[in-house]
Each structure stands twice: as C-alpha cells, then as structure tokens.
Amino acid sequence: MIDTKEIEHLAELARIEVGKEETVALAKDIEAILGYVTLVQKVAGGTGVLEEHKEHMLVNVMREDSAPHESGAYSDALLSAAPEREGNYIKVKKIL
Fold first, then answer.
1. CA of 56: how far to CAs of 43, 50, 51, 60, in Å?
2. Ordered structural domains, the chain, with CATH
C-alpha cells in the first residue's frame, strides 16, 4: 500500500508542492495504477486471467515477402495518368 508519507517523499523528489487533499487522492490513484500494472504483468506472463482463453487467441499470419509483378510493369500507365511529368517522374508543385 502507498501511504501519504511516500507521496510526500515523491513530491519532494519531484520538487513539486502537493497539498494534504492531493496527497490522499494521489495515494489512491497510484494504488489503482499499481494494481492495473500487476494485472497487465499477469496477462503478459501468460498466467492468471487469460490462461483459460489461450486457445482462442489470434495468431498473426504473415505472407512471404516477394515481388508480385516485375518492376516497372505499371509505371507507364501510372505516369500517363499524371497531369505533368518529367522523364520517369511526376512533376508537382514545389513546396518549401
């Protein structure tokens, strides 16, 4: 449990002024945050909350990285659709 003495010590280290009411509120908030972090650690460790649901977890399926078509196969069609072109590049307005 976080008590008000620890909050006052943290405020001193951070060089901020914290009133008595704020100290009590911060103690409650920090306690809630630490409880949440503990829950996240349980889930990340693979134990606890989601253990019974492991078979339903999603799996990322990646495709092999390969060229779907030869390089430059669609370049002429794309460049012909551009309003202005300069060589093999689309000419655009200069933006600085």
1. 15, 10, 10, 13
2. 4-52 (1.10.20)
